[in-house]
Design brief:
Elements lengths: L3 H13 L22 E4 L5 E4 L16 H14 L1 H5 L9 H7 L4 H10 L4 H16 L3 H13 L3 H11 L5 H13 L7 H13 L5 H11 L5 H17 L6 H11 L5 H13 L6 H14 L4 H13 L6 H14 L4 H13 L6 H13 L5 H13 L6 H13 L11
Helix pairs in contact: 1-12, 2-13, 5-6, 6-8, 6-9, 9-10, 9-11, 10-12, 11-12, 11-13, 13-15, 15-16, 15-17, 16-18, 17-19, 18-20, 19-21
Length: 419
């Protein structure tokens, strides 16, 4: 009974603060005011968050000038953690020719052309948005920019957004979260009517979201800001705390930990730590790498959890590319965590595979080891020999950085003077 009470309270408070969706908008990329009345989200400690309905900007633009490649890693992790659910977005029962036509669409404009031929159902609207986003993922940056410009200038785009706003209250939770994520990824202004409407739908149904929906929403909110988003994040903290015992997916847990961030209460961080430790036997190598980065993002130092992840990483160094290994070291530096076994293993591994790394990568390794105040003897010895064999391979900037690292550790190279 005790578990039901807080969940019912959260559901009541979230639904109490939700109001009817605006139905009559002239332009769904404009950001005019919904209403002058704020919406309140009541939290368990009687602190209130107001969801402001006043939206300042009235511009219509087609891109927010973000690098899509930088945002793909995390959402790809979320997608891979629910493989069956993601694939079913385009593998529905073929009750009409619509599905066959949708699969053949290769750009957002193709999908919009299709919506002119067929009137999509509430569920199909979400699938259209998802397909529009997926169709741009493998494009080059220049092609993506061009296709998104065509999408925003397409005569059917406003009509499609109007249909999406009318459909949102009839969509399933899974469709709502994927549709919102697709809108954000496509560069639809976050303060537009359509995005704010989907945010309010998430707010209204938040207490009914399962771990998959919460994980997708967390990935989406991480890229957004504003008073409505802040209040929704606060609501998510309440829901996550209640639903934490039922979370069974490691990536979903990490995504929500990342969203909760450094401002999370200490007791909630400790609950997340206990939950993560209880799932540590499920950690894959990518899970272990991402957990250390997540803890750095939360500003939370958990020695038992770091030890579990470090052990897994040290055993599989040969499978980790440079970028992820470097990010792990940066996260350890941010957490002031120095596992001598892990750092020694990394130093010896890089030294034994010196030829596969570029000079820039090796300099970055040395620099981050200096930041960790750990002397990577094996790496420094091997790299000194490489530099002496081909001193012209280093730029002046790299050479100064290398000299700084060696001098900071007072590393003795007298036995190499004759070389």
């Amino acid at each position: 009974m005790s578990a039901r009470v807080p969940k019912n309270i959260i559901r009541w408070s979230l639904r109490f603060c939700s109001q009817r969706f605006p139905r009559k908008q002239r332009n769904f990329l404009n950001t005019e005011c919904f209403s002058t009345h704020p919406v309140r989200l009541w939290c368990s400690k009687q602190n209130q968050k107001c969801l402001s309905r006043s939206l300042a900007c009235s511009e219509r633009f087609y891109s927010q000038n973000r690098n899509h490649n930088e945002e793909m890693d995390e959402i790809n992790n979320v997608e891979q953690s629910f493989p069956t659910d993601v694939t079913t977005l385009t593998q529905r029962p073929r009750l009409s020719p619509f599905w066959n036509h949708l699969e053949r669409c290769r750009s957002p404009s193709d999908v919009l052309d299709l919506t002119r031929m067929y009137s999509p159902t509430h569920h199909q609207v979400s699938n259209c948005l998802t397909h529009m986003w997926f169709s741009t993922k493998k494009m080059s940056e220049e092609q993506r920019f061009y296709e998104l410009q065509l999408m925003f200038e397409h005569p059917e785009f406003d009509k499609f957004l109007q249909r999406a706003m009318k459909s949102v209250q009839f969509m399933r939770n899974n469709d709502i979260t994927y549709a919102l994520l697709s809108l954000v990824k496509l560069g639809v202004p976050q303060r537009s009517y359509v995005v704010q409407t989907f945010l309010r739908a998430c707010q209204e149904k938040l207490s009914d979201f399962d771990e998959k929906n919460l994980s997708i929403l967390a990935s989406c909110l991480k890229q957004m800001d504003g008073p409505n988003v802040d209040a929704l994040k606060e609501g998510m903290r309440l829901v996550v705390e209640v639903s934490l015992p039922g979370i069974k997916n490691v990536v979903a847990l990490q995504t929500m930990m990342n969203l909760l961030g450094k401002d999370s209460p200490k007791d909630l961080k400790q609950k997340l730590e206990r939950k993560a430790l209880s799932m540590s036997d499920q950690f894959s190598l990518p899970n272990s790498q991402h957990m250390i980065r997540t803890m750095a993002a939360m500003g939370f130092y958990s020695k038992p959890l770091l030890h579990v992840c470090s052990k897994r990483i040290a055993e599989n160094l040969h499978s980790i590319p440079f970028t992820r290994l470097y990010q792990v070291l940066l996260s350890c530096k941010e957490l002031l965590y120095r596992d001598s076994h892990l750092l020694t293993e990394i130093s010896e591994y890089v030294a034994s595979t010196l030829d596969i790394w570029t000079n820039k990568q090796l300099v970055l390794f040395l620099s981050v080891f200096e930041g960790l105040v750990f002397c990577p003897s094996a790496l420094m010895e091997a790299y000194a020999g490489k530099v002496m064999e081909n001193p012209n391979a280093l730029t002046l900037k790299d050479l100064l950085c290398v000299l700084k690292v060696y001098s900071s550790f007072n590393y003795d190279l007298r036995h190499r003077r004759q070389q």
